[in-house]
Design a protein that fits this description.
Helix content: 55-70%
Structural class: mainly alpha
Oligomer: single chain
Order of helices and strands: EHHHHHHHHHHHHHEHH
Number of helices: 15
Number of strands: 2
Largest sheet: 2 strands, antiparallel
Distance between the termini: 30 Å
Length: 261
């Protein structure tokens, strides 16, 4: 079974999200949806024409972010402007499209946090966003959000015990969860029985992960939008998320190596 990752959700345009939720699209939004299936001048014409009956630029900014923005600074600005408009909608427009706007706020905020995390000078801000989500149980199964945060937790500046306990509440049915829990227990206490038990289970659920971690040259450069449990796609995604932590936690790679033997 193929699963969409958090990073895969970033590849969905707001117009596509509306369509997937069976929400009514106006003429401008239909043009944007059509533009996503076109290329070149035809796509750009539809994007520009889609403005004719809309007062906001959320769709246009996200289209720019997806296809034209080159720097993290450009992408961050797009998301910040969109979030400002979305919060205004939630505040002033009552219940109209509230479900969509709340979902877009969540995905935009997580996208922003991910971009900030990739810039080591702005990680404290990303950490703040993630902690807010980690203390809200409704997000536990939100595109594998909890294991994503758990992989980065040892690199945080503030190791809040409440957040850590919430993040570890994920199930043990997929390797993306168990590797994250095993690493977090080892970081906390290298002789932890929980760490060893979870690592052994992780290696059974997906034995491909170590080969992506042992040699830094094998570490994937980009995250995947879809993964399949137990397969190389899941292993690649896990390695992209966790390689920095595995190599930063003292003894973690040696521990993984000894268990593989």
């Amino acid at each position: 079974m193929t699963n969409t990752t958090l990073h895969g959700s970033f590849e969905l345009h707001p117009a596509e999200v509306m369509d997937s939720l069976d929400l009514e699209l106006n003429e401008g939004q239909l043009m944007m949806l059509e533009a996503l299936n076109c290329t070149g001048k035809d796509a750009l014409e539809l994007v520009l024409r889609s403005l004719f009956d809309q007062r906001d630029f959320i769709n246009q900014r996200y289209y720019y972010l997806m296809f034209f923005a080159k720097s993290a600074k450009e992408k961050i600005r797009c998301l910040e402007y969109n979030l400002f408009e979305l919060f205004n909608r939630l505040k002033y427009e009552g219940k109209k499209d509230q479900r969509l706007n709340q979902l877009m706020v969540q995905v935009h905020t997580l996208h922003l946090a991910e971009l900030l995390w990739q810039d080591k000078t702005q990680r404290i801000q990303a950490e703040m966003y993630w902690k807010e989500f980690s203390l809200t149980p409704q997000f536990r199964d939100f595109y594998f959000l909890y294991p994503i945060i758990l992989y980065r937790f040892p690199l945080f500046c503030d190791h809040d015990p409440q957040s850590l306990a919430s993040l570890r509440a994920i199930s043990d049915d997929m390797a993306i969860n168990t590797y994250a829990k095993a690493l977090s227990y080892f970081w906390e206490a290298p002789v932890s029985p929980s760490a060893n038990k979870l690592l052994k289970k992780s290696l059974k659920l997906n034995p491909h992960v170590p080969s992506y971690l042992f040699d830094k040259k094998n570490t994937p450069k980009k995250p995947l939008g879809e993964i399949e449990a137990g397969e190389h796609s899941e292993a690649s995604y896990i390695a992209w998320l966790s390689a920095e932590t595995w190599w930063s936690v003292p003894g973690a790679i040696d521990w993984l190596t000894s268990n593989c033997k």
